[in-house]
Amino acid sequence: MQSDANVDARHSRRDFTITTGINETSASRSDLRTDRDWTLIAIVATSGFAGLGYEIVWTRQLSLALGTEMMAVLGAIAGFFSGLALGAFALDGLIRRASSPRYVYAILEAVIGLWGLTAIWLLPAAGRVMAPLLGTTPAPALLWAASFALPTLTLMPATVAMGGTLAALERMTREARSDAKVSAGVYGANTAGAVAGTLACAFLLIPSLGFSGTLICLAGMNGLCALAAVMIGSTSGRGTIKTEDSIRHGFGGLRLSFTLFATGLLGIAFEVLVVRLAAQVMQDTVYTFAGLLAAYLLGTAAGGLLWQRAGRNAGDGSLAWLLAAAALACLITAVLTSFIAGIAETAVEAGIAGELAVAIALFLLPATAMGALFGHLAQQVRDRRGSLGWAVGINSIGASIAPLTTAQILIPAFGAWTSLIPIALGYLLLLPFRRAAALQSAIPACIALVLLLRPAPTLVKIPPGGKLLALSEGPMATASVVDDATGARYLEVNGRFRMGGTSSVRSDYRQAMLPLLLHERPHKALFLGIGTGATVVGGAQMPGTNVHGVELSREVIDLLPWFANPAVTGEPPRLTVADARRFVAADSDSYDVIVADLFHPALDGSGSLYTVEHFAAIKQRLAPGGIFCQWLPLYQLDLPSLRAIIRAFLEVYPDGSAWLNHYSVRTPMLALIGPRNGGRVDSRALASRLLDPRVRPAVRPLGFETPLDLLGQFVGGRRALAAFAGEGPRNTDDYPFVAFDAQRNVRALSAPPWSLLLSVIRSIRPQAAELLDAPEHEIWSDRLTAYWQARNRFIEAGAALPGDPRGAALIAAAAPGLLDAIRLSPEFEPAYAPLIGMAKSLMASDHAAAARLLRSIDEAAPLRTDAKDLLIREFGR
User: What are phi and psi of 658, to 5 degrees?
Assistant: First the structure.
């Protein structure tokens, strides 16, 4: 008995050991598989992060090389998606047949990373070659073809490799999980990583590291993905998962391919339209675009992941419901967009968070439906062909032609808002011909009909009592002419940025005349930026000067007739529609004066017009003795951006100087004047020009009667500017500080417009020695110093005025500061003339006050006789 008991005990211990070992092995395998799953998720997401990061950086680098005309932008997008499509098709069979997809994937990531590093110098170099080949005014077809060819050829190794990564990741995940239906989940996780990549690159990496540093970081991520894929080991011990025979359940191959193509086209067209509309009500900065793109990707990621969890086992009948849901969601966004102006006005005050909220409201529903739809279609293709490559390729082809179709067909035919309705109807037309199709499409079709019958909403903000006079909508922008309650007319682009108007004509003319007067004999002048046309026409008033203007937006040119500018006595200005950067790089002509208009620094794309590279390209276009004038809107800039621009300017124009346009504290403007050689003004030559009977009629109405009127605008020379700018980043093509300083520049719009002007005049002390050659500066030094002190006191007095006083209240508030100014310099006409005007206005209502003011004027500036003469004539003393 005891022996049998011992045997039973030994068997029990053996069975326990075997059982425990099996359980421990099973647990170990389970833990290993869990770790492998999490590693795969990290790889999938990181791959998406890097992919969208590259797209953001490369798109911006290409815009520097090709310009920001719509055809150039469309060509770059089409070239990028074409590379993805080519890679998806070319690598599909290789990935499907590979015995180890992780090695194929690792090679693809290595290729992307290496080419990402190569692009640091390749894209800028290609751009420098491309611009002269295109010329200044290429035909739209040529511009599109070149813009398509450049990214297609220069980025092909990377984009082709990107086209195969999703298919490789899907196969790795499918075999690791022993699950044939993971396509939607892989797509969702990859897109979720893309959301993070979009936000991180726009808000963190590029502002901190610039384009080159960001590309290095992204290449490092590619390397980590490749290394992790190799080290993860065999993804499954079960071999290839046998897929179900979905042919008997699914779409026919041709119809499935067409649906993938059409949904790629419709999805990207919808994205382009919503971004185009949102630009009219949001801040339209680099962060606005990043937020909109992130919201779109967030929706598609959510759709793919939700479909993976909830809908991946549904039959093909669910495709019709997904198409109907996409159509309905697009129409809901169309309805929301018609009211979005009021919503955005409140939301954007919250800054980036507010803009992200608006972007999510516009994109979340439709993009979620689109993400689920692609996940479903991709799974059908995977089940049929054994790989995702075909789905990615067909969908990318549709996406590649979507921007061109939108810009050249939809917007011209329907307008940006109305075009959302054909997009929604396009999804309904893809419904299978089944009895249930009528029910599934009924609600979206009815909503679409109602929206088609109603007038298209305008997103232009009309001031109380004002009215919309004209609207020009195109693929680039929406330009409008608005009449405010006072009768002043102004030009507005994309609903937020004013480009001048009837109330600023005199200021616009001075923008042209100041640099033209600083040149001794200008014959040819180039104006970059036209706006209402006043600056260009003002320049054309200068006798003997031929003027050429370049404007980016055709929509702006179309509205010029609404702003009646005086007839030009000489040759009329020649106008060209082109990107300013590309025009300057491609031009072979030379100019005596080049004037760059007030480019809104926060506006997406404008920061590239303040870079070292662009300033250097302009210098190449200057004739011997030529000068470049860059106007800066101080009321739209923050101090760090201003200093970065000045540092960039002085690097190219070491003898540069700064000048004011006028002394208004409402719209202060600073001109950076860069001479090709030399840098000082000849006061005697200037005096002679101002007395020229041909020149005098053009400049005298603008207040330029004597050399002092012009020299008094001087703010500082190279030493003073360098000290003001200090050490810090320059604004360059590779490190676009101004573009990514947009949020601070947006906040500057809500600050008092004179804030930065006061910082400038308080920090910079002008010196006659930096303005005039010896011995002239010795002759002028005392007069100019007094004049500049009076000018600064005048500006400070204007900034200190409380509210918006009128009549006697204005005189009481303003007169003390004006009197201080003429005490410093009796020659300071901008203060003396208004004081005399105030005294004359008081004579009609308060003789005693008028007499007191005239006596104060006479005491402050006894060498001038206007006040004394009025006292004698009106009061007998």
Answer: -120, 140
